[in-house]
Amino acid sequence: MSSNIATLASLYTEITRLLDGEDVTVSELSTDSLSRLLVVAQKRIYRDVRCRFNEKDFDTVTVTSNLAAIPADYKALSIAHFGSQSLIPVPEEVIRDYQSGTTGTEKYIAHAGANFTFWPAVADATELQGRYYFAWPDLSDSGTNIADNLLFQEADDLFIYAALVECAPFFGEMQKMPVWEQKYASIVGDLNRESRRVTYSGGRLQRRPSARICERR
Asked: Sheet of 67-69: strands edge to edge?
């Protein structure tokens, strides 16, 4: 799927039409205001959306002292492994509490500040594999920014309604805000559900063997 919106000016026009009506020439909205609110809207989008259009592979993320740097554009983990069984996400305190142990049937991953940490400990120079959900660069007219953003190309209405929700309190449109919020939430839900359907459509889920990380010696 490809968006018909190819420039920021076109995107601002779509947003303005829903705020002020079809005649965008009489709008009092400034481009600067729309730009700032669109940036805020995008921050929300990437906190909420977990789908294949904002998912990518880890790229040269290696372990040092049982830590691996979290990518700058990272928003959430999709799947992580070291070439075999998937790592299980847990809170950092779980790994801290049990890191003295040396046994375990599965490996674990946790956020530790700006890094990932693991249990049992992983050897230096081991490369983390898998995928994560990320934030695309803010929309701009620079180069192929808009064309490259797969999430925008798939769901430009997501960006429009996210921006409208942010605009509503500032431009006297609070009465419309619940409708715009509902539309935004519906698009997010559809994207996230579609991703889960793709994930589970390959076959039946299998129960993984239970971990013994909580058994202290």
From this structure: 67-69, 115-119, 108-112, 88-89
The pTM for the full model equals 0.84
User: Within a domain: residue 173?
Assistant: yes
pLDDT in tens, 99-136: 665 555 568 999 999 999 999 999 999 999 999 999 99
Burial classification of residue 198, based on how many CB atoms lie within 10 Å of its CB (0-12 exposed, 13-18 middle, 19 or more buried):
exposed
Are 133 and 199 in contact, with CB atoms under 8 Å apart?
no
Q: Give the residue from 133, 156, 172 where a domain finishes.
A: 133
CB 169 within 8 A of CB 177: yes
Residue 213 resides in a domain: no
Same domain, 91 and 49: no
Render pLDDT for 62-81 as a digit per residue (tens, 0 to 9).
999 999 999 999 999 999 99
Q: Residue 177's domain spans which residues?
A: 8-54+141-196
Do the Cβ atoms of 5 and 14 come closer than 8 Å? Answer: yes
Q: Is residue 150 part of a domain?
A: yes
Q: What is the CA radius of gyration of the chain?
A: 22
